[in-house]
Write a structure and sequence with these properties.
heterodimer, A: alpha/beta, Rossmann fold, 4-stranded parallel sheet, 18 helices, 15% strand, B: alpha/beta, 4 domains, 12% strand
């Protein structure tokens, strides 16, 4: 059990956290023909947009209600109305997702009421999907915005199983957390289809932000799950939720349409994937395809090869709760010590991170912890690059945003194969660091040997106890 | 202490701005920012603008007072480069939470300032106001004043919350803050007759260093650069400069004008984009310095350096001219860059099919007309769809723009080069121009584009397979099927009699007239009369049989 501590600083330095509204908007980006809108000042959208564009290197649809100072004082009804009408007329989306921001939450815009008025006033919008999520900037983090938006989408758009109550036995819903990449979703889709299952991903970023080149320029998202498919999710046989952040959405779906769910908190590592594959075999009634038997073998071999390099490493890791839990558990399984752990927001999983203490803080905290605890591997999003350079330790980029390297959308962590590739990447980083920075020299050969490194966190306790 | 509203009003009344000068009194009062369109706005906010303008000050701690969105979503996103400290790249924010919104965030701001000073001990702290604390009434001016006194360090309030307007307004509000709290508060160690200020130069990708060696060679000292690779002490003592160059005229014209009024520092608007502009700017700097008392020989030395640099640059660009012949470029950028880059590209022999003038002043537009001719294709506000169309239909071979519109070009499988703030290469001065030409050539001559525009080979194969499966292909491959198809052709459309039936009748009975065919088959012989006649004439087998 890790102790969860919140930083008591007044000044966040080098933030790890990003705001809720863009997390919410991110979820809408996994819907086909969607236009996410931030109800706030235009800067709120501009910053978020830049972040997404730099991460995915893709055109990203995101609009704003462009709240001015005057509109902020008088209330944002007119801006919201105009924004919706403009978007409806120009971009012709299939759905508009609206996320509030700090500005419109502070002045107290009642967006639900506004939307009702707008629908009454403009009959063409009466049945048009307008989904609103309340996501104040001053509360929660990116992951919370995603969680809330998916819950609202389920509430607003999923229909019940129909009068007959018949379910489609091969239809499975997948609710992925925001820590999975489009590449991860594609990998999961392939796995499910190999078991003869037909998955519906909500949201489906693999459809929209996988880096495809559309035939025509579109102002909205150009892929993702369609509105009809979301509506039909109530007829599925099962829901698979990935990451603790998706529990609520799965529960709402169960309450609304009676679809049972199974939550997988992790999908990186050998054990979680064994569980996952077994579950798929059960619900599909099919044996595990030979392909996955082979992949499992490859992963176990990769673990053998990589443990020489990853084992004993003192890892400093900062990420949103679900990603932190997933990666730190996998590294712990490989014999690394999670020495410093920082996250953004509260979650049930963080106290189960295999370390002594998890801090809700910023990258400056991480840097300081990594320095005092002599960490030799840093894992966080791209903003950790300065810290890694100052600490002179290898840096593995994980999470959002990843703006200074290519392929952020295709970095894999799920499945046997995803875990295998990630292990190789991390191990290779460590090897390269040793070659570049830790070659023995005539001066260093006399240097005292490093104190032996212990592997893992909990294993220490047992080892000591057994000696005693 | 003027209110923020009064300050914004003040900024809109900018006598140094040509565009503003041509407006009527009523128009001027409305301000120069276009009313934002909810649902179709894409620019940054005033906070963004203020931060962009000031963040390159390298030894200052930039503390953002607001919820996580303002700094958390945007930090470390600028390509400015520092020759010394990197403190400016460390992000500081008060990360306001719900409780702060209810009880006010001043206390937290105060503590945050103390924490920053205790741990980083910066030369100064800039505190940026954002929308939320502005709404709940946090008085950052008062907090900063108190903190300055308590800690004996400049703590400067930058009052530019996002919702007051655009990025451009934010640039100017940042300038106001410098004028009010920073410029003229310290004295330089020494002065020379060759001291200048650069205003609105941000040293993106270290581009300032493509020009600075030339200034060094001429003995001209950059007393203060606002704000690229800038230092607090330099800007605080910048009022002792002899002349100033306003580099990005859109962003900080108010600073240049007010420094002229207050301290008598003459300024000119110039750019180091392109060969002609670089030479012009160097001459202007020398001229202003000489006017203010520098020895006259500076002019001669400047001309000599210009002549040498120009000759070198032209020689370096010459080999590219034939390679660029007939190549067309589309330029999407704003303000001063629109004409200075036009000039630069034409020097390299590219044809400009259009340039955006969204953020340009009337003067900028006049210069474009001068350069591109009367029929210059000036694009006021181009939609991404239109850009895409122009590229797709090959009206342009390459697009030069900022990062946000790049995917329009790349999705159209057309070359694209980044010339805005996020670019990786520096394109300033003579060497920068050569670099830009090299980059354009590298992009245009990349064989990858050709491949990208080809459909995937398996797509071609798939198409062939579909064709194979079509009935026509089957007929073509099988003679028996072909014959059936031939015979199935309808001759008499009225009574639906096909070719095979008629042919059989002709052969079997040796028919020679339409009349006879009509008798033996169901053919009507009305509108199909001519077709049957044709068959009778064409059928060789008919003749011998008829002769029998």
């Amino acid at each position: 059990m890790a102790l969860v501590k919140a930083s008591n600083k007044s000044c966040a330095v080098n933030p790890l956290k990003m705001s809720q509204p863009i997390g919410g908007a991110f979820a809408f980006m996994g819907l086909r023909g969607a236009m996410p809108v931030l109800h706030g000042s235009q800067g709120c959208t501009s910053f978020g947009l830049t972040l997404f564009v730099r991460h995915f290197k893709e055109a990203v649809p995101l609009q704003t209600t462009a709240m001015s100072e005057v509109a902020t004082v008088l209330g944002g009804y007119e801006n919201l109305e105009q924004a919706i009408l403009n978007i409806y007329g120009r971009a012709k989306p299939k759905i508009v997702g609206i996320c509030s921001t700090g500005v419109t939450e502070t002045n107290g815009d009642d967006v639900d009421a506004y939307l009702k008025l707008i629908r009454d006033k403009h009959p063409q919008l009466a049945k048009f999907p307008l989904v609103y999520v309340s996501t104040p900037d001053f509360k929660g983090a990116f992951q919370d915005g995603w969680e809330k938006a998916v819950v609202r989408i389920v509430e607003a758009l999923v229909e019940g199983p129909g009068v007959s109550g018949l379910r489609d036995p091969s239809k499975v819903n997948v609710l992925p957390g925001c820590h999975l990449t489009p590449g991860d979703l594609d990998e999961l889709r392939a796995i499910l289809e190999d078991f003869g299952l037909r998955p519906s991903f909500l949201p489906d970023l693999a459809g929209s932000l996988d880096g495809h080149i559309p035939d025509e320029f579109m102002p909205t998202t150009t892929g993702g799950i369609g509105i009809d498919e979301i509506a039909s999710m109530g007829r599925a046989q099962w829901t698979i939720a990935i990451g603790a952040q998706m529990r609520r959405a799965a529960e709402v779906l169960q309450a609304k349409a009676g679809v049972p769910f199974r939550l997988f908190e992790r999908l990186c590592g050998l054990d979680p994937n064994d569980e996952f594959i077994t579950f798929l075999s059960e619900i599909s009634g099919r044996p595990v395809p030979v392909k996955y038997r082979r992949q499992r073998g490859q992963l176990t071999d990769a673990m053998l090869d990589a443990h020489f390099h990853i084992g004993g490493r003192r890892v400093a890791i900062a990420a949103e709760p679900d990603l932190l839990f997933d990666l730190s558990s996998m590294l712990h399984d490989m014999g690394a010590q999670v020495t410093a752990a920082v996250t953004t927001t509260q979650s049930v999983v963080i106290e189960r991170v295999k370390t002594e203490e998890v801090l809700i803080g910023d990258l400056d905290d991480l840097e300081e912890l990594a320095r005092t605890k002599q960490c030799d591997l840093l894992i966080t999003h791209s903003h950790g690059r300065q810290a890694a350079a100052r600490l002179k330790i290898p840096f593995y980029r994980a999470g959002f945003p990843m703006f200074d390297r290519l392929g952020a959308g295709h970095q894999l962590s799920v499945g046997y194969r995803g875990t295998r590739d990630m292990l190789f990447d991390i191990a290779n980083l460590v090897i390269a660091d040793r070659e570049e920075n830790h070659q023995p020299t005539p001066d260093s050969w006399r240097a005292p040997p490093q104190p032996p490194r212990r592997a893992g966190h909990s294993s220490l306790g047992t080892a000591e106890r057994s000696i005693a | 202490m003027s209110s923020l509203a009064a300050r914004v009003q003040n900024i809109f009344d900018e006598p140094g701005c040509a565009k503003n000068g041509s407006k009527s009194e009523a128009e001027r009062r409305k301000g120069c920012t276009k009313q934002l369109q909810p649902g179709s706005a894409a620019g940054g906010c005033a906070f963004d603008g203020a931060k962009i303008a000031l963040q390159p000050f390298t030894d200052v701690a930039h503390l953002v007072h607001g919820p996580i969105a303002c700094e958390g979503n945007s930090w470390d996103n600028r390509g400015s480069v520092s020759s010394g400290l990197n403190l400016w790249r460390t992000a500081f924010t008060t990360d306001l939470n719900e409780t702060d919104i209810v009880f006010g965030g001043e206390q937290r701001l105060c503590k945050a300032i103390k924490e920053v000073i205790d741990k980083w001990d910066p030369t100064a702290i800039f505190v940026y106001q954002t929308c939320i604390p502005a709404m709940i009434g946090d008085d950052i001016d008062a907090v900063c004043k108190a903190a300055s006194q308590r800690f004996g360090k400049p703590v400067i309030p930058i009052n530019s919350p996002g919702f007051v307007g655009s990025k451009n307004l934010g640039n100017k509000l940042a300038g106001e803050a410098l004028l009010e709290h920073v410029i003229g508060t310290q004295e330089p160690n020494y002065t020379t007759p060759y001291d200048i200020n650069l205003i609105g130069e941000y040293n993106l990708s270290g581009e300032l260093w493509q020009v600075k060696p030339l200034l060094d060679e001429l003995g001209i000292r950059i007393l203060s650069c606002i704000s690229g690779d800038g230092k607090y002490r330099e800007v605080a003592s910048s009022h002792r400069a002899r002349a100033a160059m306003l580099v990005c005229s859109k962003s900080m014209i108010n600073v240049a004008r007010r420094m002229k009024e207050r301290y008598g520092i003459p300024f000119f608007e110039g750019a180091f984009y392109g060969i002609h502009d670089s030479s012009d700017s160097l001459r202007q700097i020398a001229r202003l310095l000489v006017e203010r008392g520098a020895p006259k020989e500076l002019l001669g030395r400047t001309d000599a350096v210009i002549a040498r640099e120009e000759a070198r640059a032209w020689a370096a660009i010459e080999p590219y001219k034939p390679r660029f012949k007939g190549k067309k470029a589309l330029l999407i950028t704003g303000g001063v860059k629109s004409w200075s880059v036009v000039a630069a590209l034409q020097e390299a022999g590219l044809e400009l099919v259009g340039t955006s003038v969204k953020k340009s002043t009337r003067e900028d537009k006049e210069r474009i007309k001068e350069l591109m001719g009367r029929d210059a294709h000036m694009i006021e506000d181009m939609t991404p769809r239109e850009m895409y169309r122009m590229l797709k239909e090959a009206e342009a071979d390459i697009m030069l723009s900022g990062g946000k519109s790049q995917f329009v070009a790349l999705k159209a499988a057309m070359p694209w080069i980044d010339i805005n703030q996020e670019r990786c290469h520096a394109y300033l001065g003579y060497v920068g121009m050569i670099k830009l030409v090299e980059e354009i050539d590298k992009s245009l001559s990349n064989p990858m584009w050709e491949q990208l525009r080809q459909p995937a080979p398996w797509q071609v194969l798939a198409k062939a397979m579909v064709q194979m499966r079509s009935p026509l292909a089957e007929i073509a491959c099988d003679p028996a099927l072909g014959e059936t198809a031939r015979r199935a052709k309808e001759i008499c459309l009225c009574n639906k009699v096909d070719l095979g039936t008629i042919e059989d009748a002709i052969t079997a009975h040796g028919l020679i007239s339409v009349e006879a065919v009509r008798k033996h088959t169901n053919a009507f012989g009305g509108c199909c009369n001519r077709r049957i006649e044709g068959l009778l004439a064409a059928s060789p087998s008919v003749l011998p049989q008829a002769a029998e």
